[in-house]
Specification:
With 413 residues, the protein is mainly α. It contains 16 helices and no strands. Helix content is 81%, strand content 0%.
Length: 413
C-alpha cells in the first residue's frame, strides 16, 4: 500500500488519524489540568505544583523519541528496500532501548525529584503537590516509554488508525478516572497522577498487543541483542525529535525569565506578559499539532518509498503535505492578525491593559506562522529518509539559534 496506493488517498488514510491523535493527546492534558484546578480550597496551588512537573514529563517523552522516532523511520526504509530482517532488528533494538531508558529515568528522577522540581520553580507552598504528582507518574515511566515509542512503529507500518485508537483509549480512560480519583476518592493530585499512569498502561498494552500482530516483521530473541552500530543509527535519527522536545523546556524557561525581568520594568508588570505568552504558546501548540500530525502521518510514505527507490512519490508527498499545511497556517495567520480578541476572550478578558498587551503579543509572536510548516515538514522528511544530520541542524537552528539567542539579546535593545 505504501508503495503503490495513490498519494492523495494514502495521505488521507494516514494523516487524518495522526492529526486526530495529536489533538486527543493535547485535549486530555488540558482536561487533566482543568480537573486539578477545581480541587476544593487548594486548586490553584495544586495546578501550579503540577505545572512545575512539566519539564520532567517532557524529558521522559523526549527520551522516548530517541528510540521510537529514531527507529521507526529506519525500519520503514528497510521495509521499503525489502530488508525485513534489518527492520526486525531495528524494532527489537529500539524496544530494548526503551526499556533500558525507562529504568534509568525512573531511578534517576525519583532519587533527585525534589531538587529538580525546585530548580524548575517549585516553592515551599507547591513542592508537596509537585512531588506527589511526579512521584506517582514516574512509576509509570516504562509504560509511557513503550506507549510513545511503539506507537511510532505502528504508524510506520501504515496503521495510523490503530496508532490513533491506542492514544484515544488511554486518553478516554484518563478523562473518566480523573474525576473519580480526584473528587470521589479524594486523592487530589495523586488521583490525577494515577489516572494518567493507568491510561498510559492501557495505551502501552494496546501497542504491545498490536506489535505481536505485525505481518511485515516478526520478533525473536536475537532481535533484542543490542548492536552498537544500529543503536548509534537509531539515536542519531532520533536526535532531532529529542532536541525539538527538549527545546520546549528551554524556550519556556528563557522566555519566562525575560518576561519577569523586563515586564517588572514596564507598565504591564510581570504577570500580564507571563499569562499572555502562556496563552499564545498554548494556541500556537494547538495550531502546530495539526502540522505535526500531518508530518507524522506521512512519515511512513517518505521512508518506505525512499527505501524502495521511488523518489518521485517522496517528492509528490512532500509538496502536497506542504501545500495543505501552509494553507491551514495562512488561515490561522489571518485570525491571529485580524481577530485576536476572539481568541483572547476564550481565556478571559481581564483588563484593558491585559487586552492591549495580548493583542500585541498575538500579532508579533505569530507574525510568520505560515512558514512554520516548511521547517517542520522538511525536518520530518530528512528524519524519514535517513538524514539525521540535516534534521538535527534544522531543529537546533530554529529552536535554539534563531529563537533562544534572540530572546536573550533583543530585549536589551
Amino acid at each position: 500500500m505504501l508503495g503503490t496506493a495513490p498519494i492523495g488517498r494514502l495521505m488521507l488514510k494516514l494523516a487524518v488519524p495522526a492529526v486526530a491523535a495529536q489533538f486527543i493527546n493535547m485535549l486530555y492534558n488540558i482536561v487533566d489540568r482543568i480537573y486539578i484546578g477545581h480541587i476544593p480550597e487548594v486548586g490553584d496551588l495544586a495546578l501550579t505544583g503540577v505545572g512545575v512537573t512539566f519539564p520532567i514529563i517532557t524529558l521522559v517523552s523526549a527520551f522516548a523519541a530517541f528510540a521510537g522516532q529514531g527507529g521507526a523511520p529506519l525500519a520503514a526504509i528497510q521495509l521499503g528496500a525489502g530488508k525485513k530482517d534489518q527492520a526486525e532488528r531495528i524494532l527489537g533494538n529500539s524496544l530494548a532501548l526503551l526499556l533500558m531508558t525507562a529504568a534509568v529515568l525512573t531511578v534517576g528522577f525519583s532519587a533527585f525529584k525534589e531538587p529538580i522540581l525546585r530548580a524548575f520553580g517549585a516553592s515551599d507552598a507547591t513542592i508537596g503537590y509537585a512531588s506527589s504528582y511526579i512521584g506517582i507518574y514516574l512509576l509509570g515511566t516504562v509504560f509511557v516509554q513503550l506507549a510513545l515509542g511503539l506507537n511510532t512503529f505502528i504508524s510506520a507500518q501504515g496503521k495510523a488508525m490503530t496508532a490513533m485508537l491506542s492514544v484515544l483509549i488511554g486518553a478516554v480512560l484518563n478523562i473518566v478516572l480523573d474525576p473519580i480519583f480526584i473528587f470521589v476518592f479524594h486523592w487530589g493530585v495523586k488521583g490525577a497522577a494515577w489516572a494518567t499512569v493507568i491510561g498510559q498502561v492501557l495505551n502501552a498494552i494496546v501497542c504491545i498487543s498490536y506489535i505481536r500482530k505485525f505481518k511485515s516483521v516478526k520478533l525473536n530473541k536475537s532481535c533484542f541483542s543490542l548492536d552498537r552500530k544500529m543503536v548509534c543509527k537509531i539515536c542519531m535519527m532520533g536526535t532531532s525529535s529529542f532536541i525539538t522536545q527538549i527545546s520546549i523546556v528551554i524556550v519556556m524557561a528563557v522566555s519566562n525569565n525575560m518576561l519577569v525581568y523586563y515586564g517588572a520594568k514596564s507598565i504591564y508588570g510581570a504577570d500580564i506578559p507571563l499569562t499572555t505568552l502562556g496563552i499564545v504558546m498554548k494556541v500556537n501548540m494547538i495550531v502546530t499539532a495539526f502540522v505535526q500530525g500531518l508530518s507524522t502521518g506521512v512519515q511512513p510514505i517518505f521512508g518506505y518509498n525512499y527505501g524502495s527507490g521511488q523518489r518521485e512519490r517522496v517528492k509528490k508527498t512532500f509538496y502536497i503535505v506542504l501545500t495543505v499545511a501552509t494553507a491551514f497556517l495562512i488561515l490561522a495567520f489571518l485570525v491571529f492578525q485580524f481577530a485576536p480578541m476572539s481568541i483572547i476572550r476564550l481565556f478571559g478578558s481581564e483588563s484593558d491593559l491585559y487586552n492591549e498587551f495580548a493583542v500585541k503579543c498575538f500579532k508579533i509572536y505569530l507574525l510568520v506562522i505560515p512558514v512554520n510548516g516548511l521547517q517542520m515538514i522538511t525536518r520530518i522528511l530528512f528524519q524519514s529518509i535517513g538524514k539525521p544530520l540535516q534534521a538535527t541542524i534544522l531543529s537546533l537552528a530554529r529552536q535554539i539559534l534563531f529563537l533562544v539567542v534572540p530572546t536573550l539579546l533583543l530585549p536589551m535593545v
